[in-house]
Amino acid sequence: MTTLHLRTTRRSQAVTRRALLRQALTAALLATLLPAARAQHAMGAGHGAPATTPMPNAAPGNAVEIRNFAFVPARLTVVAGTRVVWTNRDDEAHLVASTSGAFKASPALDTGDSFAMVFDKPGSYDYFCSIHPMMRGTVVVR
């Protein structure tokens, strides 16, 4: 009778461990996918072009907001010599880093912090958040 009790206990512990492991894996998967889903939603996936809200004290067309784990707009076209300003509107810290090393990465941007840089040479400058690599954007300089 004791043996049966031990087997039952071990079996129920194994089931509990499996359930906990399954829950942990599900939580980890959701944590990975949720920011990507937020970014797609913020970029207007399936709803046309993303909405942009110009930053105060910034000329329209040279501001990028970081919100909902996305760069908005994700693609910005400017003329050579334009100063582009990124402002973090998220509750999480973000960094702006060049994919190719074309420009020096920003420091960590807390909520409300900004980072600016002047793009003097024509070209396409891809960048991302080095904390959240699924966040990507491009500045096209003409």
Order of helices and strands: HEEEEEEEE
Question: Looking at the structure, what is the overall shape?
Answer: globular
Task: Assign the CATH architecture of one domain.
Answer: Sandwich
* Residue share in helix: 25-40%
Radius of gyration: 22 Å
For the sheet with most strands, the description reads: 4 strands, mixed
Give the neighbour order of strands across the main sheet.
Answer: 2-1-4-6
Low-pLDDT segments, ≥5 res = 1-15, 32-59
- Name the average pLDDT: 75
Fourth CATH level, the homologous superfamily of one domain: Cupredoxins -  blue copper proteins
* N/C terminus separation: 82 Å
Count of extended strands: 8
State the helix count: 1
Could you please say which CATH topology of one domain applies here?
Immunoglobulin-like
CATH class of one domain: Mainly Beta
What would you call the structural class? alpha/beta
- In percent terms, what proportion of residues is strand? 25-35%
Walkthrough of the structure:
The chain is globular. The protein has 1 helix and 8 strands. The chain has 142 residues and is of the alpha/beta class. It has a domain at 63-141: Cupredoxins -  blue copper proteins (Immunoglobulin-like, Sandwich), CATH 2.60.40. The longest helix has 41 residues, at 2-42. The protein has a 4-stranded mixed sheet. It has a 4-stranded mixed sheet with strand order 3-8-7-5, with no helix packed on it.
